[in-house]
Amino acid sequence: MTTFTRRETLLSGALLVAGGMVGWQATPASAAKAAAYQVLVFSKTAGFRHDSIPAGIQAIRELGAANGFTVTATEDSAVFTTSQLAAYKAVVFLSTTGDILNDPQQVAFESYINGGGGYVGVHAAADTEYGWPYYGQLVGAWFNSHPAIQQVTARVEDRTHQSTAHLGATWVRTDELYNYSTNPRPNVHVLINLDESTYSGGNMGDHPIAWYHSQGSGRSFYTGFGHTIESYSDQAFRQHLLGGILYAAGAGSVPPVTQIEGEAFTSQFGVQVAGHGSASGGKTLGYIDNGDWAGYSQVSTAGATRFSARISSGGAGGTIRIRSGSATGPVLGTVAVPVTGGWENFQTVSTTLTASGSGPLFLTFSGGSGSLFDIDTFSLS
To answer: How much is the pTM?
Structure first.
């Protein structure tokens, strides 16, 4: 197997585009209406250039025609001025590579995002602007390497976002699968991660591949998929890309997410804080045995419909019960925690909740004998 390293190879530019859709497809009447807003697709390259860029642009044009936005595609970085960017609700970096914006253009783009603009990064957008720290924060993580194109099973952590609501708990697809220089999880809301046991060449362990976050008053969405030409005729990928564009443009709703460090409990029975080098903040909620619990008075369960937790287990695994009000309060949902093969091997589990909660959050734990699992972070949405 050949593993390619930073900046992929030679050449320039890449632009990602998607067309057709599954869930947000507009009716003929709505498609015929005048477009409500504009999206800029930027595909300039100063390194490797993906041959999927034209297919991506065409797909995004088709998505726009069916969903009420117009698309301007360019590789001219001169468009990155304050006045010109103001015309667009979102800017898509479609497999861009290398150093593509000069200092004044970077300043204009920062102002655009901080002032409420949207960013969509597709695939090699993570192989872009390594010397610009603001961009690194915006994209979430920079490219490091990739193995050959192959099939993978991706795990969908959050199916409440418009880019993932059409997917099942797993998504099997063929693409080029980036390894990133850092894990973006502490700074973003992860939507999809890769199961590294299902392909060859992954080196991250916990391996996010699609995520979103806010930056200033703006919104950022990134997907590592989209290397191949075939991606842009794949209805599931097109829907995924469309959802990211809608989010970045502020045209789709995203449920509020409360993300909490597992060790931030305010009351407990049996559990302790455990040190973990690969955990967010270097710590987890640990030493969890059957019958233990943790309370979080700072977290309300009111209206919560989904729970996700990043867990590891070198022990017995078990079950988390999400409760409202007390450690014996109403159960809003349960989720099984598998054995992950080690205390540093993290993965995400999630479940839907009844939305009937009203009091503070309590987590109760059950399972076999001995240590069950650790909780790094968890979220309610």
So the answer is: 0.68
